[in-house]
Every structure is written in structure tokens, then in C-alpha cells.
Amino acid sequence: MWALEGVYGKLAIAEAGLVHTVFIRATLVCLLSLIYALVTTRGQIGVNRRQFSVIVYTAIAGTLGGDFLYFYVLTTTPVTNAVLIGHLQPVFIILIGYFILKSDRITRNDYLGIALLVFASLLVTTRTWNNLIALRLGSRGDALMLLAALLWSTSAIAMRKYLASLNAGVMILYRFGLGALVLGGILIARGEMVLPGRYALLTGLIVSIGFLLYSEGIIRIKAAQLAALELCAPFFAALLAYSILHETLTPMQACGITVLFAGVYFISKKEEL
What is the pLDDT of residues 140-154, one digit of tens each? Predict the structure, then answer.
């Protein structure tokens, strides 16, 4: 789902613009999560004050911060780069979660996995050996994606720590609903509210499925393991970007994706070597 989102999100931005794409995406996620929440909770979709305050943070950091940065970066950066860097969340989740989620201890496998993920990201962003040797480590868009990954990771940790008992549909409903209200207000103020394009609708549908699966998973397994499993996305993103957008990989980037899977393997292991 995350790989598909990157490809069709890029097409949606070209079709309807950045703010409009993020707004339609958030609105559709909100509507579909409402249906899911009503079905799975029998209409009990309320939250208490403490839960709402955490959801406000996830809306600001996750939707208005990380999501908006992600789609902004897609306007200038290859999908594979954006998806891989954006899904380096385990690096932040493990380090931040160690201090906040006391049950998520850091193992030797985690350290090894982090090292491999960082190395994989360097291979993908630098693209060639000459760039790596010259320490040309990536573009401005790559740096912004790192910031988006940090924002997403803090949102995931907040969900894990404070919202684990909340229904996934309810959690997503409020997070994206608040984001949609802000983005809709911006579009109305700018006089740019128009009918959604097909790619924006498709992007919203794709990410709705992805977030429902993600939120159901985050209450069942360790946060770092969940984020690590997400890192299969760059492999699919590379295939889809090549077949749909005609983006190509350098040999070093292909090597980076291979290293990525090794990092996923070690972070996903529960036991020490």
C-alpha cells in the first residue's frame, strides 16, 4: 500500500496540486475509517480528553507535518528515494521508543539492523559510488524526507503508548479528520476547492487500507518490528516506479534495496543472535 501510495500520489499531485491531493487523501481516509469504526465498535466512536490531546498531536505531526512533507518531496524526488527514506522510521522509533516505551528494549539485532538500514539509505540517496566517496549524500528532498520520517515515528510512538486501547478506525478517523479540516480551510481560503481527480481518490483509497492495517498491527506487535516490516515498501516502490513512472535505479541503489532487506531481517528478530 505504501509503495502504491507513492506512485499514485505523484500522479495525483501532477493532476490536481499538492494541497488538494493531501486534502482529498485525508478526507477519504477519514470517511472510510468512519465506516470501519462504526462497524467494528457498534457506533462507539467517542474518545476521552487525554486520548483526544494525543490524537491532536498525531494529526499535527503525522498528517499536517509528515504527510505534507512527503507529498511535497514527491514533486522533485524519485519515488524510490522518498519511500525508502520515509520508511526509515525504525531508526527513530527504536532510539526514541527505548526511552518512552520501556518494554521495547534495544537488542544487538536492533543495532545491527539500524546500521544496515542507514547504510542502505546512503546507497539509495547517493545513487553512485563517486557521489558516496565525495560525500554527496543526497538532495534537499532527501533531507526533508528524514524530517518526515522523524515526525511519523513520534506519531507512531504516541499511538503505541497512549492509544493502544483505542479502535484503529477511531484513531485514524480523528487524526485524518482534524488534518482534513485544516487543509480544507486552506483550500477554501485560497478559492481552490475543486472536485477530486481520479488519482487523488485512488491515493486516498490506497492509504486508507494501509493505515487501517498499520493501526491494527501497531497494537499487536513491537513498534520497531512493525515499522521494520513496512520497509518492504521500497522494493515494491522501485518496481512500480519503473513500470508506471519510468523511473530507473542505478546498480548502487539496487544494492541498497538488497541491504535494506538484511536490516529488516535483524530488526524483525525478537531474540538475540
Answer: 888 899 899 899 988
Confidence of residue 272 (pLDDT cuts 50, 70, 90): very low
Is residue 208 situated within a structural domain?
Answer: yes
Residues 185-234 pLDDT 10s: 999 998 888 777 889 899 989 988 887 787 777 667 765 566 566 667 77
In a domain, 273, yes or no: no
Question: Torsions phi, psi of 218, nearest 5?
Answer: -70, -20
Nearest to 67 by CA among 27, 31, 34: 27
270: its cell numbers: 525478537
Asked if residues 127 and 64 have their Cβ atoms less than 8 Å apart, the reply is: no
Domain that includes residue 45, residue range: 2-268
In the chain, the number of structural domains is 1
Mean pLDDT of the chain: 83
Please tell me the distance from the alpha carbon of residue 273 to that of residue 270, in angstroms, as a whole number: 9
Report the SS3 class of residue 45.
Answer: coil
Instruction: Output the nine-digit C-alpha cell for 37.
Output: 469504526
